[in-house]
Give the backbone structure.
Amino acid sequence: MSNDPLRLFEAWFPSDSLLQGLEAALATASAEGRPSARMVLLKAADERGFTFYTSYTSRKGRELEENPHAALLFHRSGRQVRVEGRVERVAPGESDVYWATRTPASRRSAAASRQSEPIDSRAALEAAAAAQPEEPPRPAWWGGYRLVPARYEFWEHRDDRLHDRHLFVRDGDSWRVVRLQP
């Protein structure tokens, strides 16, 4: 077992998965503590944290502005990793770089959508996307977030139900590791 949770995460979810985009459940909560969860597409995992992109005005964006603490949950083949921490916006230049990698159709869709807001019909949504320029610039209300880990929990299934659980808690520049009961 590594004392570096990011290295352990990379071993459990190899980088080829990240290149294809790894999905995770993102849990946020409103200022009143009302939780919500949804799947997001992870675009980077490195020493800075876990990065995903969305509309800042979506429900998740509004909740992250009100309460900048969140959790990610990754699950595959009898293993799960929970990552909890503070969420921050990535720099606009970093969002611009990622925006440029998206297909033109994906950029038009993102620029047209007022994510999480009601719309009259599918036809209205398609018309809004069709009205976008061929190469729309990144909207100011769209960009990246990075979850900066304060805790990782690694859980591995065992048939005898004595599952392996290890908790990593940030302690200054290092990590304190403890084994948890199943």
User: Anything to note?
Assistant: The mean pLDDT is 94.
